[in-house]
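> @MW can you paste both from yesterday?
MW: sure, first one:
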Amino acid sequence: MSLVIAAISKDNDIIVCGDSRIVDKNSNIVTENENKIYQISDKVVIAYAGSKNDFDCLKIYLEIKSILLDTNDVECVYKEVKDYEENHASNDGIHLLIVGFNKCKIPQIYLIGTEKHQCRISKLLPINYMAIGDYDFDLFVDTQKDFSNIINDMKIIINDRAKVNNNVNTNINTVVLRSQ
């Protein structure tokens, strides 16, 4: 899988960075320019690693549900995505980071991982950073920095992983949700 990282800065800004390579099940490159970060609103982002098809289906579902869904509340979006994944997980598998602010404006990172028709991981993370996709390294993000320095650190991490993991490239997309 590719690499997507989310972090909460010392100022409660949320940063999400991800590479843009899509590979098939045989690790053949499908595209170099896929944006794996989907900004639902000014307060919530969903990022993915894994099946593009699964994520495209989830996006369509969320667009339909957005009429009834509070897309500015990360907890509300997380619950909807969790319910969707529990009922629609495919064999391909997908890992999701759902990040944003709750109704009390507290930044949060949620993780959902599905494989073989099961939602195996689903939780609010008690830490200020997380990566999905490439799990073959020890991730550390200094969240006591401001958001611009965190972005630079994340880009360095992704570039370094691209040197050793063919599923990761150096075309990096970034989204920042400001706390104010």
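MW: second:
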Amino acid sequence: MKEKLKIDIVSDVVCPWCTIGYKRLEKAISELGIQDQVEIEWQPFELNANMPEEGQDLVEHIAEKYGSSLEQQKQSQQHMIDAGKELDFTFDYFEGMRMVNTFEAHVLLEYAKAFDKQTELKMHLTKAFFSDNQDVSKRGVLQQALLDVGLNATEGLAQLDHAAARETVKNTESYWQSMGVTSVPTIVFNRKSAVTGAQPVDTFKKVLTDLLAEQNQ
């Protein structure tokens, strides 16, 4: 049996370019017909690790963090909306939208790994935030996401108050930062090479084709 190509995706739940990057990678994998030759694992990264429980108005947050004017933000959002449409993903930016803390979402993504439900839960949470106007820092929203993907919500939510589970996520975040990951998405292949950003589908196809050819030599 051929060894699978291991793909680690370092990302955040509320990162629009992470969503676009993954959807393009998914399209590349599908178009190449190599679904059975790759194994994806999601790795935690918090864009805003110090985000308070109440979150922050998105316009205010982006202006503060990146110095972007409202007009620049509108242009950037439209760019993401258009990119999402090409990939059948809806970005619904609305007035009063808030950036939120995602640490507990990452704890649940770590929990989902043992059940091979990481990708499903990740995309469910991303859709909840960007498409369905939901606050993914709220435990009620997290609970519903667990139920929707067929996981044990009681067991999953218990992880959020489990010191070891929280520590695992913190340590994993630190590991990827120590490996030089400073922006997301960072997509790592076999823990040897990486690409950053939401690359075009054709770029992913070339990277995947080259790596699989090299691996199967």
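> thanks! The two ends are 14 Å apart (CA to CA).
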